[in-house]
Amino acid sequence: PRKEKRGKIKEKKSKEEKKEKRKKNKKKSDEEETPQKTQKRKSKEGEENNNNKKAKKEDKKEETENKWKWWEEEKKEDGVKWTQLEHRGPYFAPLYEPLPDDVQFYYDGKPLKLSLATEEIATFYAKMLDHEYTTKEIFQNNFFNDWRKEMTSKEQKIIKDLDKCDFREIHKYFVDKSEARKALSKEEKQKLKEESDKIQEEYGYCILDGHREKIGNFKTEPPGLFRGRGDHPKMGMLKKRIMPEDVVINCSKDSKIPEPPEGHKWKEVRFDNTVTWLASWTENIQNTLKYIMLNPSSKLKGEKDWQKYEVARRLKDVVHKIRAQYRADWKSKEMKKRQRAVALYFIDKLALRAGNEKEEGETADTVGCCSLRVEHIKLHPNLDGQEHVVEFDFLGKDSIRYYNKVSVEKMVFKNLQLFMKNKNPADDLFDRLNTSILNRHLQSLMDGLSAKVFRTYNASITLQEQLKALTNSEDNVAGKLLSYNRANRAVAILCNHQRSTPKTFEKSMQNLQIKIDAKKQQVEEAQQELKKAEDEFEDTKDAKAEANVEKKKKLLKRLEEQLAKLNVQATDKEENKQIALGTSKLNYLDPRISIAWCKKFGVPIEKIYNKTQREKFAWAIDMADEDFEF
DNA sequence: CCTGAGACTTGGAAGAATTTTG
DNA sequence: CAAAATTCTTCCAAGTCTCAGG
């Protein structure tokens, strides 16, 4: 309680202090708004109903006024995460609604009425019918196995072959249903939205140390079929419905303890203030825990995030020493040390993940640095004019392929040859190393250092360097944003953050090209018209003609700018085809670097961070000025 | 040291909402 | 204004890493 008080007082005080600052900021950002935008807003004003607008405005006000600036408070003692935690417990997935009687399941061509539980599981499969998953044998087998377990003995006797099961009518029912939902009237949609807002309002927040904080995932996961990524041995297995009896609640002793749904009990209620989760349950596929935790905008998550970047910044001070040491260790007499040094080199240079061991047969076969196998690399003494080239080809996290050809130092190359000698393709490359050995070593080099810190550090430092190299202060905002995206992209490539090419990519690229061509045409026409106007002015020398010249000049300039913008867009799009920027932006790049860049070059923060991102990075937005250096 | 449990971060895809376009 | 395109949000799987206990 004492702590809480102190926090509150501090908050109040700081609020007053910041009021001035905020005012200034607001003015500034208002001014910075483009005229276009203001105009749009104005034109909207007329149509939109006043009530709505007012409500929105108040909403916005509240947002800025009530924010908890936890980063201005003193830290809690080690290991204690909160002193007060109150919430409503998870929101449970809706119960199964039976199919209407005219929607039937067919076995061997004949309609078959299923028991409720069996029918529910059948709908899981039916819903996925046009997904590639259902064509895979493992998926089908796992599903059928688990499905049969839940059948009545009578059903078990009849349903013996998945190929004889016809789910198409059920499938169609759900397709139609989702179409119908899309086609609802505005009012009906509004009503649905209000209902979900109400649930969000009730279950989506908790009270943490006197502050209302948003929860990240307040709903239990609905039952369904497990979809792993890549070649997952468990794909298609039945994910069971979570019941209150499965759920452990965590909250503070003196808080209002959440009520389980009527007729039910919690598995357990505990009061553990050394952890950050509000509720947990064990998931039946991998037998691991799942948690309900806070939203990234919360203090608990934000503080940790901030701390992560501070650790990475400390690495910056010692990284030269560490690099010198692992280079020296390449020549160590101890095999163990050599392997450690080469692995660390990969982690540092290529931003590979640590690579924990995984239980065989339980998950897809993926690897990281320490778990690389001989079959994952090829050594080329010479390749495409480069020496000592290592060709990596393996599946990493989420079964995303890592493919890279890297020219490495001679000593690394020699070591790799040594590590691979007399081994089978399926043998571990670093047979004397694992993540715990590596991390123990790293911890001894710097407090808080582990393998993943290198990824954070290299990502952030790369962004900072790239921004420095690419940004041209003469550019307009669009040009600067292209530079930002390119810097971001360099990081995403480093971290191997890939996405599948969007389905609409080719088409939208074509459309853009058409637009560019049309704009070029316009520019040419405008040039001709300007010429004509100039000639006319030459002849007549009258004021009207002069004004006309000015007008045409302006038009041309505007068109040229628009063309440039389109070209920038096209470049950006093409370069981004298979790169996913989101993960690095959200998890690896110290937000203060981006914010400092925005401030320095007069780019509004909203251009690089959307609302959610600004909420997550509120701490950074508040504390970073344009001089921030990572 | 090794092992497994536990807690927490990181990841792309899919679905929903919003904006742009024709 | 509807359809298409784009952006944002949700979903939940899959990593990392620490710690307790043998």
UniProtKB/TrEMBL annotation:
Residues 175-202, 509-576 form a coiled coil. The active site is at 588 (o-(3'-phospho-dna)-tyrosine intermediate). It comes from Tyto alba. Releases the supercoiling and torsional tension of DNA introduced during the DNA replication and transcription by transiently cleaving and rejoining one strand of the DNA duplex. Introduces a single-strand break via transesterification at the specific target site 5'-[CT]CCTTp site in duplex DNA. The scissile phosphodiester is attacked by the catalytic tyrosine of the enzyme, resulting in the formation of a DNA-(3'-phosphotyrosyl)-enzyme intermediate and the expulsion of a 5'-OH DNA strand. The free DNA strand then undergoes passage around the unbroken strand thus removing DNA supercoils. The keyword Ion transport does not apply. The keyword DNA-binding applies. GO terms for biological process: DNA replication; DNA topological change. It catalyses: ATP-independent breakage of single-stranded DNA, followed by passage and rejoining. Residues 1-12 have a biased composition (Basic residues). InterPro entries: DNA_brk_join_enz (IPR011010), DNA_topo_DNA_db_N_dom1 (IPR013034), DNA_topo_DNA_db_N_dom2 (IPR013030), TopoI (IPR001631), TopoI_C_dom (IPR025834), TopoI_cat_a-hlx-sub_euk (IPR014711), TopoI_cat_a/b-sub_euk (IPR014727), TopoI_cat_euk (IPR013500). Its EC number is 5.6.2.1. Residues 44-67 have a biased composition (Basic and acidic residues). It comes from the Eukaryota. Keywords: Coiled coil, DNA-binding, Isomerase, Topoisomerase. Signal peptide: none annotated. This is DNA topoisomerase I. Residues 1-67 are annotated as: Disordered. GO terms for cellular component: chromosome; mitochondrial nucleoid; nucleus. Belongs to the type IB topoisomerase family.
